[in-house]
């Protein structure tokens, strides 16, 4: 009996010693984190040029071009400390699947609870003239050195549009004073994101195009089919779409 107990004890110790423990988080180390954007219209995935949708006013529409800037990305830890991405300028272009996600490098290891970012390009870069990378004018998101960048772009068609070719075009620009369309978004994670060596967590964020045209300012395509000048109408749309994002999940 005694020998059996000794053998059992040895077996238990062996089993526990074989259980793999998670690598500890090193506060002085860093890794990568990925952010992926998926665009929808309501609950339907966004499909360019072929699929019809309806807005809050009951107008039907198709989307031909859909782009927006995500900049000044920050991750917030459970202890409230903040990681701010360096040179944080990303253009999400629905027509280019490679633009739908980006990887943030050198993120300090730790537990993160939320993400914040700017929809649009900050005022400093708007007054720096045409630039490179995501801010290159070749991307079709730059007006002039005086007017700066288009923060978000929607182009489509609607039978209800009163423009000659039934087009619906909204180019959102303006970065100062009453014409400022820049909006900061803060999203709480549904689960804690763990950043540690050897892994790259991926934050999946859904964006709803329908929010451009609904609360608090319902957009009527017949009344306002073409908006491309900084002013109150574009500010109204920015107020609408500041709530268009939500975190779907983290993997």
Account of the 3D structure:
A hairpin with a 2-residue loop joins strand 1 and strand 2. It contains three helices and 14 strands. It has one domain (34-250). The chain has 251 residues and is mainly beta. The protein is globular and about 60 Å long. Mean pLDDT is 91; it is low at 15-20. The strands form two sheets. Strands 3, 4, 5, 6, 8, 9, 10, 11 and 13 form a nine-stranded mixed beta sheet that branches. It has helices at 2-18, 123-126, 232-241; strands at residues 30-41, 44-45, 53-54, 60-77, 82-84, 89-93, 101-108, 110-119, 150-157, 167-173, 183-195, 202-208, 226-227, 245-250.
Helix content: 10-25%
Instruction: Name the structural class.
Output: mainly beta
> Which spans have pLDDT < 50 for at least 5 consecutive residues?
15-20
Shape designation: globular
Total E-strand runs: 14
User: Percent of residues in beta strands?
Assistant: 35-45%
| Secondary-structure element order, N to C | HEEEEEEEEHEEEEEHE
Q: In DSSP terms, counting alpha (H) and pi (I) runs of 4 or more, how many helices? A: 3
Major sheet characteristics? 9 strands, mixed
Q: Supply the number of structural domains.
A: 1
Distance between the termini: 50 Å
Spatial extent as radius of gyration: 24 Å
Mean pLDDT: 91
């Amino acid at each position: 009996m005694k020998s059996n107990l000794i053998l059992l004890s040895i077996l238990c110790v062996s089993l526990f010693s074989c259980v793999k423990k998670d690598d500890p988080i090193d506060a002085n180390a860093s890794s990568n984190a990925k952010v992926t954007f998926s665009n929808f219209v309501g609950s339907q995935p966004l499909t360019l040029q072929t699929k019809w949708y309806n807005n809050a006013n009951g107008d039907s529409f198709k989307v031909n071009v859909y782009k927006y800037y995500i900049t000044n990305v920050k991750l917030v830890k459970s202890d409230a400390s903040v990681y701010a991405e360096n040179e944080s300028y990303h253009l999400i272009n629905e027509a280019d699947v490679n633009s739908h996600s980006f990887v943030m490098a050198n993120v300090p290891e730790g537990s993160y609870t939320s993400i914040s970012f700017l929809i649009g390009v900050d005022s400093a870069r708007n007054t720096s003239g045409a630039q490179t990378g995501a801010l290159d004018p070749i991307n079709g998101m730059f007006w002039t050195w005086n007017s700066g960048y288009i923060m978000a772009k929607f182009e489509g068609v609607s039978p209800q549009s009163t423009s000659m070719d039934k087009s619906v075009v909204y180019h959102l620009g303006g970065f100062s004073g009453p014409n400022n369309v820049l909006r900061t978004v803060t999203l709480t994670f549904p689960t804690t994101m763990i950043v540690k060596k050897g892994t790259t967590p991926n934050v999946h964020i859904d964006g709803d195009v329908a929010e451009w045209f609904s609360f608090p300012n319902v957009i009527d395509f017949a009344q306002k089919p073409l908006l491309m000048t900084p002013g109150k109408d574009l500010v109204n749309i920015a107020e609408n779409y500041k709530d268009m994002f939500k975190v779907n999940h983290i993997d």
